[in-house]
Amino acid sequence: MEPFSLTRGESCLVLAMPHTGTWLPAEVRDALNDRGRQLADTDWHLDRLYADLAPGASVVQANFHRYVIDANRDPDGTSLYPGQNTTALCPVTDFDGCPIYETGREPDAAEIERRRLACHAPYHAALAAELERVRAKHGVAVLYDCHSIRSLIPYLFEGVLPDFNIGTDDGVTCAPALERAVVDICGNAQGYSSVLNGRFRGGWTTRHYARPDRGIHTIQMELAQSTHLEAEAMPFAYSPARAARLRPHLESILETLVARARALETEA
Fold this sequence. Notes:
Number of helices: 6
Radius of gyration: 18 Å
Helix content: 25-40%
Shape: globular
Largest sheet: 7 strands, mixed
Distance between the termini: 42 Å
Order of helices and strands: EEHHEHEEHEHEH
Structural class: alpha/beta
Strand content: 5-15%
């Protein structure tokens, strides 16, 4: 299995999907316990949800599961949210804080490094190269990092998560005009809730690649899975009806980001 899939587009927009993959090497699957093998923390069906919403966009998608190694974590293991519950570069617990490995079969430092080199590094090499290609072509690039999560996870956050969780690391990762455009679209989406830089301010991908001064703008969108799944539990089935209601808002976000980014380049 190749660690990532890449679709090159012609616009200034790059979609990253670090958590949609479900592939596990046999040795990792064998080491997981029954709970871990459910792969419950997958960003279920995001590739289907975003399909064809931005035809000119590039897409970089991890094929490996986040239990192999998390493509949205700092490769040196530094926590993105110090003092808060989260999962590690190579998770040993799920989002509920429960072990996912058979006792004594958790990855050690050597195994974590092997996974980093085999999966994390190639994914990010592809993403970095695609961002640079797009920026060189257009003078500007927008990285939109696609995520989803269950809306109720007491181990990670209190209460029910809003539907749209926009992350810009408190405005650091993109131009104010891009942030405001996304906030406005989400805020005006009837029947949906939204928050800017709440529990999810943008993961390692969003923070690492942001270079607004060089024309690379990044933004993370964490969607509550209740917006597009039949239920936030096994088998995590896709809801065509809920997705059909959500997709026009996502399409508007992506189209607006491209338009605003072009305007930024024109003004530069």
